[in-house]
Write a structure and sequence with these properties.
five-stranded parallel beta sheet, Arc Repressor Mutant, subunit A, 11 helices
Length: about 230
């Protein structure tokens, strides 16, 4: 944590932010920017999600947690699950480069309150922080709002919505499908049997109407799991 880069200010009733980003320069820039917002300051700043959980366990509890979805030490979706299980009252704002429907649906189902793209204006970041505390959520466009209505309207649960939910094994498999690994090597990497991998692959084929590995890679790209 780069404490020396944090501003010393009167905390009072100010909003406390927990910041998680593995890119140090970006994290420092965001910390500097947030600390210059009125009534908002960084109370913890870490470069991976494991350190975040350690800080929270030690009692350093922010009002809002800002997470880069791509932090490497622990997969972002798993971190959100842990946070929602152990610290359900802390709003989470996800910052990512990709806001595909697959990503948004999965994170909404896990309880994420807000999404921002990395190229968002600082004013939008400030608005998002204030909004999640005031209203419980922040959504920046009509497409996202439609997805919210689709997911949270219990009378309209559809197969189309359900099929977008990927479990942890499927997420890891899709990421590895975008590498040069053979299916057997993917099985070794995931510590699963080749038969289990075949079943996992075939289930994805059926669920997403995919016929080959190219289709798996395209699905992984759409889900924001691969970047080229």
């Amino acid at each position: 944590m780069d404490k020396k880069y944090q501003m010393v200010k009167n905390k009072g009733n100010n909003i406390k932010i927990g910041l998680v980003d593995n890119y140090r320069l970006i994290r420092m820039a965001m910390s500097y920017m947030i600390n210059h917002f009125n009534d908002i300051y960084i109370c913890l700043e870490v470069d991976n999600n494991i350190e975040l959980l350690r800080e929270l366990d030690e009692g350093n509890i922010p009002d809002v947690i800002l997470i880069n979805l791509n932090t490497p030490e622990m997969y972002g979706y798993e971190t959100v699950k842990l946070l929602k299980s152990n610290f359900p009252d802390i709003p989470i704002i996800i910052v990512c480069n990709n806001d595909s429907e697959l990503i948004i649906i999965q994170l909404l189902l896990l309880g994420v309150q807000a999404f921002l793209r990395k190229n968002a204006h600082p004013d939008e970041l400030k608005s998002a922080i204030e909004s999640v505390l005031k209203t419980g959520y922040y959504y920046s466009n009509s497409t996202t709002r439609k997805l919210i209505n689709l997911i949270y309207n219990k009378n309209k649960t559809t197969l189309d919505t359900q099929r977008y939910i990927l479990n942890e094994k499927e997420v890891v498999f899709l990421k590895l499908a975008g590498t040069e690994f053979t299916y057997k090597e993917i099985a070794n990497e995931m510590k699963l049997s080749p038969r289990t991998i075949d079943k996992l692959r075939d289930n994805l084929f059926v669920r997403f109407s995919i016929k080959n590995r190219v289709g798996l890679v395209l699905l992984a790209l759409k889900a924001g799991l691969l970047n080229f």
